[in-house]
């Protein structure tokens, strides 16, 4: 049986390709994203932030384990993907590679994402006998895939609870650090616990409040926050001040050291976070 292809190049980079795809897809439709390379998975999470979740189709990401581990290790990508999971717009499963070609498969259309020289991107729409048989085979592969946990809280939940529990000023500073990280060549290098400790120190917050928030929202355990605070103290980034309480041991108020307070004053919180956590 022959395959008819109608080749159309779309987009100039992975994010623009996904932006166009998401803008055209009906909210009631279901698409399987199969064996996408990491740049396209990252582009999917990036482009999704430009839409209300209700406007998006249901996405089923079926990928190799190494690709999904890369997603989990990128806080920005994983937290954005978790937004879609919370909105019932994304399900993630892992399995061995289904084939050699990455595919975006819908009921009536197949898109083949391409990477050109590792940076440029294009997409080919396919129609014909292959597009008629592929959805069934992909659906079968999906049924045999294993559920994959992102182990990362949704970015929307992180931001909302940070504002509620730690204050709007701290959340705005954290947002600035995130925005700076999103523009970097490797946004996956952003370390959210370090960034949270640094912006908490910039705002004079209590370490107890920060670590309790972080554990409750699912960012990291209290022990992880304590270790990171200690590391930043050893590096001369933050210092602490004892604050007495009515019962129990004194709490610790976080502050920046003089050196890093000068960085904050001279260059802003985004540069401060980039130097320490980005």
Fold blueprint:
Blueprint lengths: L13 H11 L5 E5 L3 H11 L9 E6 L1 H9 L1 H12 L3 E5 L8 E3 L4 E7 L3 E7 L2 H15 L2 E2 L7 H12 L1 H15 L9 H11 L4 H11 L4 H13 L3 E6 L7 E6 L1 H10 L1 H9 L1
Parallel strand pairs: 1-2, 2-3
Antiparallel strand pairs: 1-4, 3-7, 4-5, 5-6, 8-9
Helix pairs in contact: 1-2, 2-4, 6-7, 6-9, 7-8, 7-12, 8-10, 8-12, 9-10, 11-12
C-alpha geometry: elongated
As a whole number of angstroms, the C-alpha radius of gyration is 22 Å
Number of helices: 12
Which percent band covers the strand fraction? Answer: 15-25%
Task: Determine the N-to-C terminus distance.
Answer: 52 Å
Strand order of the biggest β-sheet: 6-5-4-1-2-3-7
Q: How many DSSP-defined strands?
A: 9
What's the helix-strand series? HEHEHHEEEEHEHHHHHEEHH
The CATH H-level homologous superfamily of the largest domain: Endonuclease Chain A
The total domain count is 2
By CATH, the architecture of the largest domain is named 2-Layer Sandwich
User: What structural class should be given to the helix and strand makeup?
Assistant: alpha+beta
Please describe the biggest sheet, giving its number of strands, its sense, and whether it closes into a barrel.
7 strands, mixed
CATH topology of the largest domain: Endonuclease, Chain A
CATH class of the largest domain: Alpha Beta
The average pLDDT value, as a whole number, equals 89
Subunit organisation of the chains:
single chain
Short description:
With 278 residues, the chain is α+β, with helices and mostly antiparallel strands.
